[in-house]
Every structure is written in structure tokens, then in C-alpha cells.
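thread from #wetlab-drylab

HS: before we spend reagent money on co-crystallization trials with nicotinamide-adenine-dinucleotide, can we at least see a predicted complex? here's what I'd submit
DV: go for it
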Amino acid sequence: MPKQHLQTAWKGRHLIDGQWLDVARATFEDRNPARTDNVLGVFPRGGTADVDAAVAAARRAFVPWRRTSRILRGELFDNLARLIQRDLDELARVMACENGKLIDEARAEIVEGLHMVQYVFGTARQPTGEVVASEIEAKDLYVRRKPRGVVAVITPWNFPFAVPLWMLAPSLLEGNTVVLKPSEETPEIGERLVRLFVEAGFPPGVINLVHGVGDEAGDALARHQDVDVVCFTGSYSVGSHVRRLAAESDRKTCACEMGSKSAVIVCQDANLELAVQAAVLSAFKTTGQRCVSAGRVLVHEDVFDRFAEAFVDRAAMLRFADPFDPSAFAGPLVNRSGLDKVLYYNDLAREEGANVLLDGGRIASDDCAAGYFASPFVYRQEHRPGVRTIREEVFGPHLALIPFRDDDHAVEIYNDTPYGLSMAVISEDYRRWRYYRDECDYGMGYVNLPCIGAEVHLPFGGVKRSGNGQPSAAALVDAVTHRTAFTVNHAREIAMAQGMSAELK
Ligand code: NAD
């Protein structure tokens, strides 16, 4: 085992009302996906009682926190940024061990989380509302944001540091209090993050942590009657459940970021070398386990054969290996069910008549046998109704190359999935960029780039099954505040708008 792998067993704890609680009736194990016999730690399996206590603590802390100066709230994020910088290497190591992300990618994700914290600190002194003219000269109109209250944050394992911060940081700056339920695949990195919040000086109850599995702690949190907003990132199936729960409530809103079947579109005028690099990164970086990973590359039929040959040659050379191996391109799949899902869809592609160009699957070589490693599976598939593999999210190194006739046909194929998260067009023609920009259903669009890669000062979110119109990162402020109108009359008498009489007759 490379020495960077962590040997010590962690013992997780909930954080409720400023208290670290390690008394747990039930627990779950945290395992290393690159070495499945390596139990990294044991964590409390939270249930309804823990969620109730955490939500009650967040509710008690809400009013004092929202009354705290926004500038002072912001300055705590400056403390947090310094602590993340101090611990960057250790945090990256923890993440690489827990979810199998390459160590350099894990570092990049910690930096992305740091950027969110720095962004929030920077916005603390920015104007937060608007002053608007009134029809009545003596009135001033203000549009002001108010925090919604208690925010539940439920997060996935594939971005276990940056995604929680996309949701925690704006929520807290705006004056909400939070309960975080990190993924059961990555509980330690979630707990390390919360420890840094505490060390940075966030008061007891303002941030609470409940560990546990999805259909217990996650479900209890999503359906809790005293939660005002659920910020969820994860699969469509769980996100649609969260949306239904919010719809049944009189007060709860939700912001859901979910799965995708993102695509790269290679036009006939593309720089093919750039297209191959962009497509390989989009499909196989992070072992295809990004929400924005390309499950499809749409290729103009005139360049299909040339592109496919170069792409397959490059994909066949990629090295999937231990996250701490400096020669690795990507690491393992996160768990057994992630691996089984990829193998299922590889078989399904064959059943659906795919022309297999690169036959991937489980890697059984000595250094990979102990983990959930799989190599790229690449196939040509025509766009036809009913083909599931070109429409459903696989979340692994499984890729369809789909030929298209012209730009209209490419847009038709691109939009023919239930998802709409990310799209990249590879073309040298600026008119094409505009056409794809306007006609494809997506939340993040790219030109001459992979369809992966985000920066925190942009909105991050999708349409259709990929999101519910409440993007996170910089845009999360819209989900965790409500905009209020506040009108002040500076005259000694009352005058009404629209010419309505104020006379009492
Ligand atoms: P998941 O939906 O299985 O789990 C996400 C979180 O929801 C976890 O914390 C889990 O414990 C919790 N959960 C599970 N069942 C629940 C329930 N019944 N009630 C409440 N919470 C429950 O997703 P995952 O496997 O952790 O992550 C991978 C998925 O996330 C992929 O579909 C990926 O595309 C998506 N994702 C989307 C984005 C985005 O911004 N759009 C970002 C990252 C990941």
C-alpha cells in the first residue's frame, strides 16, 4: 500500500449545538475504493432523533446569527480560508483515500472550495439590495434580501468538499443556519470541513453536522417540518424525492442539482486534436464520475472515422491506477454499485446493437484487483428512439460516439435526453457557437473546451432532470434568501400609488 494511504481508523462524530457527539447506537464503515479491505473509519449512523436535535439547534441559533453584522459573518470566512490553506495537503489526502480521486484533482477541489470561501468573504461588503424609485415622490422603495432560516445541505461523494461549500458558504453569509448531511461515502472530509468552521469561530448551532445513510438521516432531514430550504446535490432519483417532499410542505423550498448525460459536439470544422483532448477529458477525467462528465460525443459524419480512430487510440493509453500514483490519469470507481452499474451499461450497449470500438470493463491486474477499477468502454451508436445507453446517466468510463448529419441534427440529438447540464461545442466557426449556445438545453456551455470545469463566481446548475432552476455556487444566494419589498413614506400624510385615493370617507 503506498505510504500516502491513511492507516489510522477515523471515528466520526455528529456536531450538534457546538457539541461533538460520539455516542452512537448504529455505525457505518468508510472504505477506500482503491483498496477495499482498507477500512478508513467508522461513523455514527444518524437517525430521526439526531436530525431533530440538529434542526432544533439550528433554529435556536438562527435569530442571533441573522442579527450578527453581515461584515462580521463575512470575516469568519476569512478565518476559514486561512485554515483551509493551512490544511490543504492533508484535506486532499483524506479526499483521495475516501473517494479515489487523484491526489492532484483532490487538491484542485480543495482549492475550488477555498475559492468559494474567498468569494463569499469578498461579497460580504458588497451592496445586498436595491433602492428603487416610487411613483410617489416622498416614498423610498427598497428591495432587500432576508435569510430563509434553517437550510439542510445534503451532498454527494464526488465533490465532497467544494459542493458542500457552494451551499454552506452563501447560506451562512446571508444569515441562515445549516445542518449538513455529507455523503456516507465521504464522511471524514465532511467532518474535517465542519471542524474548520468551528475553529474559524462560527458560533454553536450555526453549523451542525449529522452523519448517516441517505434513506435514514438524509430522508429525515429532507422531510423535516422545521427546515426552510433543502439544498441538495446528487442523483435525479433522490433529487426528485426531495422535490416532492418540498412540494408537500407549506414553507419548504429546495434547490436541487442532479445528474446528466452531458455531451461534446465535434463539428466538421473542428480542430480534431483539440477535439480529442476535450472529449477524453470530458468523458474519462475523474473516471467519468463528474455530474458534467460526457456520456456522449456527437461527431459530424464527415470527420467521424478520423476522430473515432484518434480518440480510441488516446483512450486506450489512459492509465487508471491508485490515486497517489503520479502516472495515473484517473482512479477507481467509488464503490461496488458504481462498478456494477458501469458493467451493466456496457452489456446493455452490446444488447442495443452498439459497435464496440474499445472494450473496457473491470481492470483485474495486480495493482488494481483490490479496488473498483474499470477502463474505458467506447462504442459507436446511431441516434434512434428507445436506446437507453445514449440517454441514461452511467457515471463511469462508458462513452457513446454518435454520428450526426448537420447542426440541426446535432441539436436534436443533444436535446434528446431527460437531462440538460453541460455542453461543449468544438468548432472554429463563431456562427456555430451561437447556434449551439441558443438551441441546446444546458446550464453550462463551453466552446473549444471540455464540458467539465467550473469556477465558483458563476452559477452552477442545469435544466430538465439536471436541476430545478436554482443553480448553486455564486447563484445559490437566490435559493437561500427571499427578496422583500420595503417602502418608507417620508411625508406627513399618506399618498397611494396608481392614483388611488387615501381619503377616509
Ligand atoms: P445520491 O443521490 O445517491 O446521494 C446524494 C446525497 O443524498 C447523499 O448524501 C445521500 O446520502 C443522500 N440521500 C440518498 N437517499 C436519500 C433520501 N431518500 N433522502 C434524502 N437524502 C438522500 O448521489 P451520489 O451517488 O452521492 O452522487 C452522484 C450523483 O450526483 C450523480 O447523479 C451526479 O450526476 C450528481 N451530482 C450532481 C451535481 C450537480 O451539480 N448537478 C454535482 C455532483 C454530483
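DV: The chain is about 35% helix and 20% strand.
HS: ok that's useful, forwarding to the group
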